[in-house]
Automatic annotation (TrEMBL):
Name of protein: Iron complex transport system substrate-binding protein
Family: Belongs to the bacterial solute-binding protein 8 family.
Record PANTHER family: IRON III DICITRATE-BINDING PERIPLASMIC PROTEIN, IRON(3+)-HYDROXAMATE-BINDING PROTEIN FHUD
Subcellular location(s) of the protein: Cell membrane
CDD domains per record: FeuA (cd01138)
Residues covered by region (Disordered): 23-46
Segments forming domain Fe/B12 periplasmic-binding: 54-304
Chief place of localization: membrane
Recorded topology in the membrane: Lipid-anchor
UniProt xrefs under InterPro entries: ABC_transptr_periplasmic_BD, Bact_iron-sidero_bind
Matching Gene3D superfamilies: Nitrogenase molybdenum iron protein domain (3.40.50.1980)
Amino acid sequence: MKKLLPFLLILVLILSACGGQTTEKNEEKKEADKPETITYESENGPVEVPANPERVVVLSSFAGNVMALDVDIVGVDSWSKMNPRFEQLKDVEEVTDENLEKIIELNPDLIIGLSNIKNADKLKEIAPTVTFTYGKLDYLNQHLEIGKLLNKEEEARKWIEDFKAESKAAGEEIKAKIGEDATVSVIENFDKQLYVFGEYWARGTEILYQEMKLNMPEKVKETALKPGYYAISPEVLTDYAGDYMIFSKNAEGDTSFQETETYKNIPAVKNNQVFEVNAKEFYFNDPISLEYQLEFFKKSFLNK
């Protein structure tokens, strides 16, 4: 029996080693079985893209979607770069659709942009390039498509489900507080012009009108609902102002209208029901921006 014990011990060690090798081989096989590329069905047809992109250039609009899915960006547009909420982009190279040499130097494995970008054919020679037409998809399906493109569809779906549920619950609380019939308008100043917004042009409009089902003033509905936005002069803002106003404010733009008697006599202003936010933080409707906007609305309407 004493002679048998060392033999059994050696046998156990050999079997354990073999089992470990088998596990390692299985893991290696799993890694080897993972595809290096996938085919994404873009609006312009199928595009072969990396299964796990690691060096993405975003030329317009979608930086927040990419970052929300934990994919690295190596080049980005100026509008995204200036967003204070996008701290991750601080050291990322700023590029445009005309900076072909700079984009080549960044060695991207995927390029994403809007359908109106310049040099699309040349960009495709640098890396797989996928474009989207702004507004063709609603903001949630747009994020889902970015998820499919980055091979992270399930993560995108989960975020969408959670965000819709949270927005709906917050909307019910807000309506209970401000009243079912209360109206909310979204305005923004740019240069010497004012704009009002419909329900799908970022600035928090998707949350307020689509998810929370808050009411849009009739005049805004008539002019801005279909095109997404509508330019007005400060003198007629009274006609477009809701019981509550979200003011997406460009501090460097003309804000002198706020000092006029016309503005000061708007009921929302007199009742302290104007909520100001930095316009640069409200330009987009990606998950990072939307989560910030939702928290802003909770805090503003509900003091949360």
